[in-house]
Please model this.
Amino acid sequence: MTDVVLKAIREKKLSNENVSFSRIRALAARDYSIKDQLNRGRAVLHNTNQLDQYLFTYGRMIESQWEFALKKYTVPNIKPQIIDYACGQGLGSMFLIESLLNTNAENFQRIILIDPSSVALNRAVGTLDCYQTGAQLIPINKFFEETSAGDIQTDSRLDTLHVFSNILDINDFNLQHLTDIVASTTGKHHFIALSNDRDVHGGLHRVLDFPDALRKKTTDFKSEWEKFECKNGMSAVFLQGQFSVQ
Ligand SMILES: C[S@@+](CC[C@H](N)C(=O)[O-])C[C@H]1O[C@@H](n2cnc3c(N)ncnc32)[C@H](O)[C@@H]1O
Model:
């Protein structure tokens, strides 16, 4: 199967002059009637039809989550490295970059992208590269359980912005292991997370377990969270914070 987004980039129909989430969604989102294969968004996707179905089914919801968050969140005015955990096709980093294009997106030094789906990761790298922010893109094609602090290779001279877009509510992975990775580099850290607000299959309590676990391993810990309503009427959660590791 051809990835229509990567094809459009290769054919220069999508370039840094015109790339945007809206354009990508218009190009690729498609209802193949395979929503069930997405397993409420948590499935590891194996083909581009599933990526396109994900954009069709969840794209606008995730866009509206980030719209809310980025009105409230001031991305630290530093030169950060981003780690986008369970990045999928890279929507979280994409919304961050788009919101900063006219300010300090070029300050991002590197974007580390972790996801077990190679087809999603390829699209994430191709798309983020198209924005030409100058950031080094580092894909890690692994489950969290297989990922170690050594894989992440953060630079302790840079602040780190940890991004969790629609992953912390999922109860399929070991939270303790994830917080070990997050707190593995000395330095200053920031985090931002968005998730559905529900109380089955993980959900809000799972999102809030994350700052609780991280607080115990770090210093200068601060976090806050709030619920809000997405444009599709669904309740969502926005969590943000910062900490240091010495
Ligand atoms: C709801 S999607 C979120 C994708 C992206 N962050 C977004 O906002 O569109 C969940 C992602 O988690 C990934 N995933 C599932 N299980 C995982 C695990 N155990 N470790 C790491 N990633 C996992 C899937 O491949 C999928 O891309």
Observations:
- The two ends are 47 Å apart (CA to CA).
- The domain at 4-245 is CATH 3.40.50.150 (Rossmann fold).
- The mean pLDDT is 92.
